[in-house]
Amino acid sequence: MGPAQGRLSATSAAEEQAGAARALTVAYVMSRFPKITETFVLSEMLALAEQGVRVEVFPLLREVEAVEHPEARELVRRAHYRPFLDLDILRANLHFLVRAPRAYLGTVAQVLLRTAPSPNFLAGALAFLPKSVLFAREMQRAGVDHVHAHFANHPALTALVVRRLTGIPFSFTAHGSDLHVDQTALSWKIAQADFAVTVSHYNVEFVRERAGAATAAKLRVIHCGVDSTRYAREREPASPPFEILCVAALREVKGHRHLLEACRLLCERGLDFRCHLVGGGPLARRLADEVRRLDLGEHVRLHGPLERGRLLERLRAAHALVLPSIQDKAGRREGIPVTLMEAMSCSLPVVASRISGIPELVEDGRSGLLVPPGDAPAIADALARLAAEPELRARLGRAARERVQRDFDLAAGARALAEAILAQRRPVRRQP
Fold first, then answer.
1. Same domain, 369 and 265
2. How many domains would you assign to the chain?
3. pLDDT score for 6
4. One domain for residues 390 and 267
5. Based on the domain organization, do 206 and 307 belong to the same domain?
6. In what order do the strands lie in the sheet with 369-371?
7. Residue 33 is inside which H or E element, if any?
8. What band does 8 get if pLDDT is binned at 50, 70 and 90?
9. Based on the domain organization, do 39 and 119 belong to the same domain?
């Protein structure tokens, strides 16, 4: 076969896959929707929809936040929000009890048995199991071909329940804390899934160490990604001051206290800088108090959460982004933060912790700077170096953008997920 024939064959295959994708209906299950800190779920759904996949959204809980991405509004309008218990839920459970008693009772027994070792997982099972049964009924009626859950805990369990009651294939993506803190029933979920995704090779090794090689072998790595065309910028802002940006939920795992200590050290060194903290969360008041205690009011500003357009303005106005992630006392740690991908797409040099899957994105000294987790002096040194060396900022920024475009592209990740779904596609029994 000649080169021209090869190109035609490849084009035909791509067209065939696109046609198959357009015939797909995929139901997404997530813990909360819309959630400003989980933009990666929204982006993935929108990227699949752009390929012609019909996406239905089944959140376990409705998230109500002061800030909402405009792109989420249509999905919010169509989302299948349900309370913990109502007449429809009771009818759905009665339907499966009468029509498929063995599957229904066996599923309930297995779910309770498998989650019993973990008080958190057992409580989640008791809370969400009745609603999961209703989701199974609604997905049958909606003609869903595949269920994909984001997070290995409660959403994956809901998808598993749907699979056992209806035969609809399911998969799930494991990210960070949903995988690292509690592995109760993880092997069972992976074994029951048609396939399972995780966002980093670090996570594959994590599962291998805790659940064995056979379980880890069923995982495939599909990176979260971003559309780099949305984040391009023409030039960095003038300086001084040196503009530092941190975009992260205000939680312990993000390491903000170490960044504030680094800012104190930068003040001692006489650096003219401003540090902008973007995000909301339970530590907001504590961090504001810490800013006052360290006398950083002239240098550090807390902006709260921002929708995508305003966040993009902040990214384009920064000289560097820092994400000082740590592992908290409960074992929570990062997957690969999409915040870093967004900043790198803006050709921003990044300073990040050498932890979990982050080194798979940020190559130290090439596409960013890595520091030990919780090391405030190292964070200060890295930021001071970037402030003093504009050529280094430019070199790291160019390489960062190229890195994201090559290996963390949103559309490529969505295509990989669609291919995996299509490869597992099979007839699903439909019930009235």
1. yes
2. 2
3. 54
4. yes
5. no
6. 300-304, 273-278, 242-247, 320-323, 350-353, 369-371
7. strand 25-33
8. very low
9. yes
- Which domain covers residue 92, as residue numbers? 23-225+410-423
Reading the block at residue 227, the tokens are 């559309």
Per DSSP, 377 falls in state H
Q: Which two tokens stand for residue 399?
A: 């390489």
User: Is residue 140 pLDDT above 60, yes or no?
Assistant: yes
Q: SS3 helix, strand, coil % of the chain, rounded to 5?
A: 55, 15, 30
Same domain membership, residue 203 and residue 309: no
What distance, in Å, lies between the first and last C-alpha atoms of the chain?
49
Instruction: Give residues with Cβ within 8 angstroms of 422, minimum separation 6.
Output: 17, 20, 21, 24
- Residue from 416, 432, 405, 429 nearest 148 by CA: 416
> Distances from the Cα of 169 to the Cαs of 174, 211, 403, in angstroms?
17, 23, 33
DSSP string, 225-292: -B-GGGT--SSPPP-SSEEEEEE--SSGGG-HHHHHHHHHHHHHTT--EEEEEE--STTHHHHHHHHH
The CATH number for 288's domain is: 3.40.50.2000
Which ranges of 144-234 would DSSP assign to H, the alpha helix?
Answer: 154-166, 177-180, 186-192, 201-211, 213-217
Distance CA(127)–CA(116), nearest Å, equals: 13
Give me the helix-helix angle, 308-316 and 338-345, nearest 10°.
60
- What band does 387 get if pLDDT is binned at 50, 70 and 90? very high
Residue 254: CB atoms within 10 Å? 27
- Copy the structure tokens of residue 354: 């050498």
Residue 169 included in any domain: yes
